[in-house]
Write a structure and sequence with these properties.
The protein has 484 residues and is of the alpha/beta class. It has 16 helices and 17 strands. A hairpin with a 2-residue loop joins strand 1 and strand 2. It is globular, with a radius of gyration of 28 Å. The two termini are 50 Å apart. InterPro entries: Aldolase_TIM, LAM_C_dom, Lys_aminomutase/Glu_NH3_mut, rSAM, rSAM_sf. This is KamA family radical SAM protein. It holds the Pfam family Radical_SAM.
Length: 484
């Protein structure tokens, strides 16, 4: 079992050097402990009940832990009644207190910017979930999926949360209510529902008995194939999942997938990796949702580091959401071009299993709309021209059929690729092509020569084993390409 008994004081991470333009691999973040809790025993620190009881829940507590100007404190005081505040000591300890723009702080600590709405576009329910709610607490938008709001409570209240309207409710929801029964009954009666998202708030804050009510009832519905638990507990309070009873309950349901929510590489701590391993051992796949947040992860280096750390934890990056236009979160929202810029720097530069789908969850209940760089450059009846991550333009004939264009027309560039007398346009400084040194062997004896097309001193002919791309250089097309 992966333990994290060794605790470290709050320290700044050193900036890692780069070699040949590639960032060094950064290990998962170290465990941290804010000096305020330096004397807390390891047993208490690892107890989720102690973490919950000692969560920071007021601006009065914050001002003793972080520096604020008088104007900031006044503004935060006005915000205190607008949206709940809770930060477990574990998650708060990930903050660098000397950095007012620390990415962990931005996600968890209130900001005066939450009171601003310069565009007037921010909404309490930007995705119109309530309008697609046939019974209280259940959203049925996609034909085969339903979302259940099971609790208003979270271990930590993210400042950009889409569902602030639901989490504003205080206390309660511990017993099974008539609304809970109605949600389960609705799923029973609608056989088209194959996938149920159990969400909130955070369903892993529910008492085990109430969580069991949802899981056992959904498991018993034959047409439900998948139960997704939407939770940020592995990120903000992993100690909750140190409880084997909770892991056993989740695993025994058999249909459960975990949908968690890491936004920054510093959140991938040894504690978080420990609980991810426990969930995986119990048979639950883990997918990650990230939100693109200004100042938190809106740069390529941070996003690559996050995704690589998730792969180390065997957590599949699933979605990268554009931040929703929810009340109080406007200062987190980037341009869509920023998201596309980041996606451009992922495809081809890291493993495909580590690349999430960038989506806009559209207003008016339009659902998730994928956004991606444009890899389809042009097309004809015979072929398409595709662009890869290196900038190569490649002619691809999808169907096995004779060309209908007849004789190629004298034309250049992308148009020349579509005419079929060229297969690719290759940038002149392509590094991969430069690595393709001709490797040759001598017919009959397997020896190596010095270069393609040359003869050894004994007169044996040479043949290429890995030839460079051979492009047809018919005159008039003008598509000569450098092989580096």
């Amino acid at each position: 079992m992966f333990e994290s008994d060794a605790r470290h004081p709050l320290v700044e991470h050193a900036v890692l050097p780069t070699v040949s333009g590639f960032e060094d691999e950064e290990p998962p973040s170290l465990s941290r402990r804010h000096p305020m809790w330096k004397d807390v025993s390891a047993d208490q620190w690892d107890d989720w009940r102690w973490q919950t009881h000692n969560s920071i829940r007021s601006v009065r507590q914050l001002r003793n832990l972080l520096p604020f100007s008088p104007a900031e404190l006044e503004a935060l005081g006005r915000l205190e009644g607008e949206y709940k505040l809770a930060i477990p000591p574990y998650y708060f300890s990930l903050i660098d207190p000397e950095d007012p723009n620390d990415p962990i702080r931005l996600q968890s600590v209130p900001s005066p910017l939450e009171a601003e709405n310069p565009s007037g576009y921010e909404l309490d329910d930007p995705l119109e979930e309530d309008k697609d709610s046939p019974v209280p607490g259940l959203t049925h938008r996609y034909p085969d999926r339903a979302l259940l709001i099971t609790t208003p409570n979270c271990t930590m209240y993210c400042r950009y949360c889409t569902r602030k309207r639901a989490t504003l409710t205080r206390g309660g929801w511990e017993g099974v209510s008539a609304d809970d029964e109605r949600m389960i009954q609705y799923v029973r009666e609608h056989r088209e529902i194959r996938d149920v998202v159990v969400s909130g708030g955070d369903p892993l804050t529910l008492p085990v008995g109430k969580l069991r009510f949802y899981l056992e009832n959904l498991k018993a519905i034959n047409h439900v194939d998948v139960i997704r638990i939407g939770t940020r507990v592995p990120v903000t309070l992993p100690q909750r999942l140190y409880d084997p009873e909770l892991i056993d309950l989740l695993g025994s349901t058999e249909k459960v997938y975990i949908q968690t929510h890491f936004n920054h590489p510093r959140e991938v701590t040894p504690e978080a990796m420990r609980v991810c391993r426990s969930l995986l051992r119990a048979g639950m796949p883990i997918n990650n949702h990230s939100v693109l947040l200004k100042g938190v992860n809106d740069d390529l280096g941070t996003m690559r580091s996050l995704l690589r750390n998730l792969l180390k934890a065997k957590v599949r990056p699933y979605y990268l959401f554009h931040c929703d236009p929810v009340t109080g979160a406007g200062h987190f929202r980037t341009s869509v071009w920023k998201g596309l810029e980041i996606m451009e720097g992922l495809r081809g530069h890291m493993s495909g299993i580590g690349i999430p789908t960038y989506v806009v969850d559209s207003p008016h209940g339009g659902g998730k709309i994928p956004m991606m760089p444009n890899y389809l450059v042009s097309m004809s009846d015979d072929a398409v021209v595709l662009r890869n991550y290196e900038g190569l333009l490649i002619r691809y004939q999808a169907e096995d059929k004779p060309a209908v264009n007849g004789q190629p027309t004298n034309t250049r560039g992308v148009s020349g690729l579509l005419q079929g007398d060229k297969s690719a346009l290759i940038p002149h400084d392509n590094e991969r092509m430069a690595r393709r040194k001709p490797r040759v062997v001598r017919d009959g004896c397997g020896g190596e020569g010095d270069s393609e097309g040359e003869a050894n001193t004994d007169g044996g002919s040479l043949r290429p084993i890995i030839p460079l791309p051979m492009l047809n250089n018919n005159s008039g097309n003008g598509n000569a390409a450098s092989n580096g």
